[in-house]
Specification:
Chain lengths: 274, 274
């Protein structure tokens, strides 16, 4: 099995970048988006065989893969609509959380394998999408047990120079709660704290603050969805961090400079290894 | 008053970068460091008129400005040594906290004005110092009331293309607790949490995590000093952040998606303005 006609549902940063990368490999791409202005830009890009804002019309394009690239809670609704339409062709997605998606795909009897491209930007939308966004990046597949589909998706993503890794949706959601969802939440939170307590300080923000809060410029629709969807794993991570903040605060309160120095030395050494 | 001979105490990233920038403007620079290997690299750079690891020899170089560029708690000891030697020539510093430094300078009857260049890197040491590190960056002066000295320091830093701002040491330490010391502490803490709870997740770290934790690679000596020295303002910031984390956590726990979306929308909009 390999894919010659791919339909992308959701022409934002993620869907737009996949569409451009696939089109560049000679694959025919079709687009679906509910936003007319996005469809206008999509038509203007001249990479699509067809675009539409009608669900029925979209699923009747001659697709051999349907790629869902919308925020996770909307993706679950989209999967339910596919279930109601008794859609039987291959489906995958590019959402940042995987447990709910896989559950919905199973409940709706889809021929499905989950996916997550590990590359983002703090900008969003089709106009910010890039043909090379995923070049060299990791792509995670979370299988539902359809091995022929899994292998075809592996080949597809390798063909646009992505490194494919496979894991369960539970492993995926735990890992990304730690290294993506928690940092995003804390970056929003820190920005919020400084805005409330000492907004004028922002004019002195140096490179460190800018880097630390770069991800706080991320898209509200996508991130409120992710936080809600990965609630359990995320809240566990937040609680681990809170306990750790108390430990670090106490080292400072108790003037325990030796311990503080050793901790920073350990952590900064590990960071430099990344 | 202007400076033709500047002595730099501490030839790390900060002192080394100032030495290179001043030397490039035709100012004679002299260096002091207790580390022999640093002195070797300093001699090798051929920008110094003289370097030494002896305090007495250093303060007897024909200096018209002595620039202290060592971590804050060591800087306070250095100021006490200058006090004991009844040093009367102009002195400034480049430390990241200002209240303790100014208090020490006053107690030791120095002819002093505090300073803080707003530019860092996560690397440290003379070999990472750069002539252009401070080009275009802000430099904050915290005056002790010696206006002729303050003006001369303003001119000096403008001559290497820095933007000079003046404020009190209290204003300075509050602003930087918020936008520098708090992000560094939280970045160390988050890195520590992930290392303890899910180290293998680090191999999937994308650009967001890398940016968010870049400052967690910072120097342990400098940062343990800063955290101890600005303890009061920093702990207040940490407590504000902790309260805010509870608010964000509760929005997620309570499924309050509308409020979460609005908060992210507000915060991300402000971040994009930076």
């Amino acid at each position: 099995m390999y894919f010659k006609n791919i339909g992308i549902a959701g022409l934002g940063l993620i869907g737009g970048s996949f569409a451009k990368a696939f089109a560049c490999k000679g694959i025919k791409v079709y687009g679906f988006d509910v936003n007319k202005s996005v469809l206008f830009h999509a038509v203007e890009s001249r990479i699509f065989e067809g675009v539409t804002d009608e669900f029925e019309k979209f699923i009747n394009f001659p697709l051999d893969l349907l790629y869902i690239c919308i925020p996770v809670q909307s993706a679950v609704c989209f999967i339910e609509m596919l279930g109601q339409a008794e859609y039987k062709k291959a489906v995958t997605d590019g959402c940042s959380t995987k447990t709910t998606i896989l559950k919905a795909a199973k409940n709706n009897n889809l021929y499905f394998c989950g996916g997550h491209p590990i590359k983002g930007k703090e900008t969003s939308g089709f106009t910010n999408s890039e043909q090379d966004l995923y070049n060299g990046a990791k792509h995670i597949l979370t299988s539902m047990g359809y091995h022929e589909l899994d292998n075809a998706l592996e080949e597809l993503h390798k063909s646009i120079n992505m490194q494919v890794c496979k894991m369960t949706s539970y492993e995926h959601d735990t890992i990304f709660a730690n290294i993506s969802h928690l940092p995003h939440l804390i970056s929003f939170c820190l920005m919020d704290t400084v805005l409330n307590k000492n907004k004028e300080a922002l004019s002195f923000a140096g490179g460190g603050f800018r880097d630390f809060t770069r991800i706080a410029a991320s898209d509200a629709w996508m991130w409120s969805d992710i936080f809600m969807d990965n609630k359990k794993a995320l809240l566990e991570c937040v609680e681990n961090l809170e306990k750790n903040i108390t430990i670090w605060k106490n080292m400072i309160k108790d003037d325990n400079k030796k311990m503080l120095f050793d901790k920073i030395e350990e952590v900064s050494g590990e960071r430099r290894k990344l």
